[in-house]
Specification:
There is one protein chain. With 130 residues, the protein is an alpha+beta fold. It has a single domain, classed as Nucleoside Triphosphate Pyrophosphohydrolase, CATH 3.90.79. Helices cover 18% and strands 43% of the residues. The protein contains 2 helices and 7 strands; from the N terminus they run ββββαβββα. Strands 1, 2, 3, 4, 5, 6 and 7 form a 7-stranded mixed sheet that branches. The longest helix has 13 residues. It is globular, with a radius of gyration of 14 Å. The structure holds 8-OXO-2'-deoxyguanosine-5'-triphosphate. The site of 8-OXO-2'-deoxyguanosine-5'-triphosphate has 16 residues, from strand 1, strand 4 and strand 6. InterPro entries: MutT-like, Nudix_hydrolase, NUDIX_hydrolase-like_dom_sf, NUDIX_hydrolase_dom. Belongs to the Nudix hydrolase family. Its cofactor is Mg(2+). It catalyses: 8-oxo-dGTP + H2O = 8-oxo-dGMP + diphosphate + H(+). Keywords: DNA damage, DNA repair, DNA replication, Hydrolase, Magnesium, Metal-binding, Mutator protein.
Amino acid sequence: MKKEIQVVGAVIQSDNLIFCAQRGPGKSLAELWEFPGGKIEAGETDREALEREIKEELQCQIKVLDKITTNRYEYDFGFVNLTTFNCLLIDGQPKLTEHIDVKWLPINQLKTLNWAPADIPTIDILLNEN
Ligand SMILES: Nc1nc2c([nH]c(=O)n2[C@H]2C[C@H](O)[C@@H](COP(=O)(O)OP(=O)(O)OP(=O)(O)O)O2)c(=O)[nH]1
């Protein structure tokens, strides 16, 4: 049986631009673009996990707003259950620590990047809302 992996991702919007992050080499889904975030740990809510991951990865603080969607996607290494949230930056600017590149893009240009496939439904919702 493949494992179920619970993941949260932050859709950080500022001045009508969305923060996009490119995964590094040598890990799963290497070099694909994603919303920053990561795996939920035992005892955490999804929102707590997201705030923690953003502090760790981007060294800034976000406010987690409304949930966008949950999507389950089957990769070779397991099923990722990705839940995304609209978020606002409330302290600091995102710093690149483990990602290899970042971009701020308007919603209508998000599909110019090569996204992790679990992220596509979130992007489609953003496109349909705008
Ligand atoms: N953070 C994040 N992960 C995503 C997204 N879309 C997507 O399929 N994933 C996958 C990639 C990873 O397999 C998992 C998130 O775990 P993680 O961010 O802690 O991954 P990691 O690279 O530290 O660890 P690993 O998967 O290499 O073991 O979910 C996304 O938008 N954001």
